[in-house]
Every structure is written in C-alpha cells, then in structure tokens.
Automatic annotation (TrEMBL):
Subunit (UniProt): Forms a membrane-associated complex with FtsE.
Membrane-related topology note: Multi-pass membrane protein
Keywords noted in UniProt: Cell cycle, Cell division, Cell membrane, Membrane, Transmembrane, Transmembrane helix
Domain FtsX extracellular: 56-160
Name of the molecule in the record: Cell division protein FtsX
Taxonomic path: Bacteria, Bacillati, Actinomycetota, Actinomycetes, Kitasatosporales
C-alpha cells in the first residue's frame, strides 16, 4: 500500500509541475550528454595518442648542395658518404633506437610529389634539391631529445626534426576543446541542480497540506520525503536516458554513417561502440543519484522533517 501511494504521488507531482519537470529533463539531458561527450573525447585523444605516437619518427635530414650554399648548418658542404655511414653506425648503436630507414633524394622527391603534387612549388623542384634523411623509429617517443643532442649541429646534418612535436600541438588543441566542453557541462549541471531544487520546493509547497496531515498522523520523515525525491529521480533518469540516446545517435551518424568520418578519415583510429556503451551506466547512475540527492538536501531544510 505504501509503495502504491508513493508511486501515485510521483505521477501526481510530475503532472502538476509539468513545465518545470520538462525543463529539468532537458537540462539534465544536455549536461549529461556533454559529460558523456567529454569522457568520450578523452578516450578518443588517448586512442589517437596511442595510435600515432607508435608511428612517429625522428628525422635526421642531411645536407645537400643547395643547403651548403644557403644554410649555416651546412657551411662545411653537402654530406659525404663517410659521414652518412658514420651517422648510420652511431644511430644503430643507440639503445633508444628501434629501427632506422634511409630515404634517398629520389624517394623524398617521390613522396613530396604524392603529397603536394598540386602545389605550384612542386613543378619547380628537382630531386637533387631534396634532402636525404634517416627516419628513426624510437622505442620510446619521449626520448627524442637524445637523438637531437647527439646529431644536431653535426657535420653533414642539416636538422633533426621530431614529428611528435606536431602531434602534441594537435592533442593540446583537442584537450583544450575537451576542457571547454567540460566547463559548459559544469554550468549546465549547476542549472539542472537549481531547477531540481526549485521544482521540488514548488511541489512540496503545493502539497503542504497533505504533508502537514501526514506529519500529524505520525508518518516518518523519509515517508514524507520519498515521493518528492522519487519525482526528481524519475525526471533525472528520463533526462539521463535521453542523454544516452544523444551519445548513441551521435556515434552512429558522426562516425559510422551520415558524416561517416571513419570512412573519410582513414588515418584516425576512432573509438568503438564499446567505449560508448561503457559510459552509459555511469550516465544513468548520475542522472538518478544527482537529482535524488539534490531533492533530499533541499527537502531537509524546506519541510523540516
């Protein structure tokens, strides 16, 4: 009988404050959708880091004849065969190096044409203007400085470049966007909590006569509070369910279909459905507990039970 009474009171309360209940559902849905999105963005950045950091190379570019005329690092002339052999030998001796690949001027020219063939500059370049280089795969991408210290400024070496630095700039941008989404999410959560508290108080005020009678006949504090807490929890749970729907639909249309980024951006290793599905229980639990706790603390002061 008591459970039936609580359930009936939930329905009455939700219908009586329909507009505010709808506002609570929308605000909870948006805030938790942003919350889930920020978690997925963190997973995506981590996945991309693991994928790309495993593929980054350190490049040791060697001086050519053109560099000898214009680059101070190549003032002693183009790299000689003896210098190339010595550089290769020293690279292979280093414990941080996993593998070394040599790229000739012809190969560099071919790769440049494949990537920038439409550029006006490509038509004026010749293979002898390209730089020979050693592409070095490190056991630990963080050990770039070891290579830079050993070969930067060495005879025959024009420069040492780390591809990880380029990726770090990209990941910093993605992390910045993620923190911005979290800031908006935090603001939306505050708005949702304020709406929940106001909705509970309005509901409690509209039923103050019933709660007064219940108090007089000896009803426990929890029994009086239960319908109001359950109303907030149900509204929050509906919002959480909508937020889960947003994430599922977004994953489906942005990555798999619609925009189909997984097909258009083959170089990016996107997160899978498992990453999305593992976040849904957390979102649902948050959508249930957050409004219930907010209602509980609001009622303690308002009803004084």
């Amino acid at each position: 009988m008591r459970a039936q009474f609580v359930l009936s009171e939930i329905g009455v309360g939700l219908r009586r404050n329909l507009t505010m209940t709808f506002a609570v559902i929308v605000s909870v849905a948006l805030s938790l959708a942003l919350f889930g999105g920020s978690l997925l963005m963190s997973d995506q950045v981590s996945t991309m880091k693991g994928y790309w950091y495993d593929k980054v190379n350190v490049s040791v570019f060697l001086c050519n004849k053109s560099d000898a005329e214009s680059d101070p690092n190549c003032a002693k002339g183009a790299v000689t065969q003896d210098q190339k052999n010595q550089i290769l030998t020293d690279l292979k001796k280093m414990t941080v190096v996993q593998s070394v690949t040599y790229e000739s001027q012809d190969e560099a020219y071919k790769h440049y044409k494949e990537q920038f063939g439409d550029s006006p500059l490509a038509a004026s370049l010749t293979p002898d203007q390209m730089q020979e280089s050693y592409r070095i795969k490190l056991k630990d991408p963080e050990k770039y400085q070891v290579i830079a210290t050993a070969f930067d400024g060495r005879d025959g070496v024009q420069s040492v470049q780390d591809q990880k630095g380029i990726l770090d700039n990209l990941f910093e941008l993605l992390n910045g966007m993620n923190w911005a989404a979290r800031a908006v999410m935090a603001l939306m959560l505050v708005v949702a909590l304020m709406l929940i508290v106001n909705t509970v108080r309005v509901s409690a005020f509209s039923r103050r006569r019933e709660t007064g009678i219940m108090r007089l006949v000896g009803a426990s504090g929890f029994y009086i509070q239960a319908p109001f807490i359950a109303e907030a929890a149900v509204a929050g749970l509906i919002g959480g369910t909508v937020a889960c729907g947003f994430l599922l639909v977004a994953r489906y249309f942005i990555i798999d279909h619609g925009l189909a980024l997984s097909e258009k951006l083959n170089l990016i290793n996107f997160i899978g459905w498992d990453a999305v599905l593992t976040k849904l229980p957390l979102i649902l639990a948050t959508s249930l507990l957050m409004p219930a706790l907010a209602a509980f603390f609001a009622l303690r002061k308002y009803l004084k039970v």
